[in-house]
Amino acid sequence: MTAAELKDTVARAVRCEWPAFAADHPRLAGVLSEDLVTITLCRSIEDDPEYRAAMTTAAEIGAGAEVVTDVVTRLVGRMIRTLL
Asked: For 32, which DSSP code?
């Protein structure tokens, strides 16, 4: 998964999670932007051991980025729920 693919995947996952986050935390959502959260989560995910392991496994089996997409989506959901 390239950096651009990671950013696109994270952005899609953030868009899916954002309405629930904004409903639960309207003030915080009012000062954060989806773009800022996307950039921040991309950096966090790049360093995440689960993401790195998924990337290694995907490379070993010759799989494409779609294999890692589920891991990224799950990590974004978990990270957004723990922003506070």
From this structure: S
